[in-house]
């Protein structure tokens, strides 16, 4: 049996670590809520092949490190930076762990505005939608602990949009399988998953282990700071919404490409932009048996939203 198989890859860690953090500046509070996944790679084969647990940082400890850094990291409010800090901390601390993969999903807590002058409340928030900000970070220490590379990507998931006009779909292949009618006006709805990547950056963690929890020098440099501030997300989200609204869409594919092109053009640090766009179909209800026209595009007013199946259009647009 032992001749037939070998361990070709291994990665483990903790998923769905739920973290909520309050940052207090006097009476003004800022809050973040994250779902964190931390997976590790390294010299961990024997834990699988020889039942030897000596190489295992317990997934419970991985969870505890996540909470500890949520308490002490100066980067907690920026998920890209927090993910890099968390992954770098682990890869720096454990000699036999060479890579950390940290994924963060940030849930929305927006400030409630109150009173006649619509003032943002200092410590009250509401969940304004299911959309999540997402971050994926790979911390790679395989070239040495003083030459750590961070590969960062970020984006949004579950941003639900719909337009009731400005979308057509014509001239596609017609053959014996084709039922779909050509339409010059239709409903276009999708739940945007967007992910954009940055060029890798080098990180030199402090040699003094006690300082690991406080600073990562590279993260405090202007270059890294300007690449990862929230304005990239704001611009990418705004571009996505604007192109969606304003494009006279010939197809989900064509609109997706325009979105990606504009994000690359307007964000110098972004290398690739990937979208996954489900085409959430809205079917005009056939009322012809009642003598009511609800099928001609200009007369179509009542639609049946169809949960499944949906089209799924995805692509990556890259900087040349
Ligand atoms: O924008 C679209 N792209 C497709 O590939 C497709 N296929 C389909 O049935 N409807 C649509 N709409």
At a glance:
This protein has 320 residues and is of the alpha+beta class.
Short key terms for the protein model shown above:
320 residues, alpha+beta, Urate Oxidase, 9-stranded antiparallel beta sheet, two-stranded antiparallel sheet, 6 helices, 13 strands, 36% strand, binds uric acid, Uricase_CS, purine metabolism, urate oxidase activity
Task: Describe the protein's architecture and organization.
O2 binds at residue 279. The protein has one domain: Urate Oxidase, CATH 3.10.270.10. The chain has helices at residues 45-49, 59-72, 79-93, 222-228, 230-246, 252-266, and strands at residues 12-25, 28-42, 97-107, 110-114, 119-126, 132-140, 148-163, 188-198, 201-203, 270-279, 282-284, 303-305, 311-318. The protein contains six helices and 13 strands.
Task: Record the SSE blueprint.
Elements: E1 12-25, E2 28-42, H1 45-49, H2 59-72, H3 79-93, E3 97-107, E4 110-114, E5 119-126, E6 132-140, E7 148-163, E8 188-198, E9 201-203, H4 222-228, H5 230-246, H6 252-266, E10 270-279, E11 282-284, E12 303-305, E13 311-318
Antiparallel strand pairs: 1-2, 2-3, 3-6, 4-5, 6-7, 7-8, 7-9, 8-10, 10-13, 11-12
Helix pairs in contact: 2-3, 5-6
Bound molecules: uric acid.
């Amino acid at each position: 049996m032992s001749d037939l198989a070998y361990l070709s890859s291994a990665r483990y860690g903790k998923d769905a670590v739920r973290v909520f953090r309050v940052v207090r500046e006097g009476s003004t509070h800022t809050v973040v809520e994250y779902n964190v996944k931390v997976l590790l790679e390294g010299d961990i084969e024997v834990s699988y092949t020889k039942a030897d647990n000596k190489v295992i940082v317990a997934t419970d400890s991985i969870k505890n490190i996540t909470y500890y850094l949520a308490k002490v990291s100066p980067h907690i409010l920026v998920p890209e930076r927090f993910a890099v800090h968390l992954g770098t901390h682990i890869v720096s601390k454990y000699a036999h762990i060479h890579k950390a993969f940290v994924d963060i999903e940030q849930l929305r807590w927006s400030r409630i505005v109150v009173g006649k002058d619509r003032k943002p409340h200092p410590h009250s928030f509401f969940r304004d939608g299911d959309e999540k900000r997402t971050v994926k970070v790979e911390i790679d220490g395989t070239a040495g602990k003083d030459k750590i590379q961070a590969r960062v990507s970020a984006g949004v998931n579950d941003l639900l949009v719909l337009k009731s006009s400005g979308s057509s779909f014509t001239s596609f292949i017609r053959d014996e399988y084709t039922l779909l009618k050509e339409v010059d006006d239709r409903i276009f709805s999708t739940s945007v998953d967007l992910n954009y990547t940055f060029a890798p950056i080098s990180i030199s963690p402090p040699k003094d282990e006690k300082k690991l929890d406080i600073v990562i020098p590279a993260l405090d440099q202007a270059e890294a700071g300007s690449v990862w501030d929230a304005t990239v997300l704001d611009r990418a989200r705004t571009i996505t919404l604007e192109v969606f609204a304003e494009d006279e869409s010939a197809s989900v594919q064509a609109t997706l490409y325009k979105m990606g092109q504009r994000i690359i053009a307007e964000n110098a640090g972004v290398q690739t932009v990937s979208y996954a766009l489900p085409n959430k179909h809205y079917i005009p209800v056939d009322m012809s048996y009642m003598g009511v026209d609800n099928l001609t595009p200009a007369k179509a007013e009542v639609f049946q939203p169809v949960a499944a199946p949906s089209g799924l259009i995805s692509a990556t647009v890259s900087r040349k």
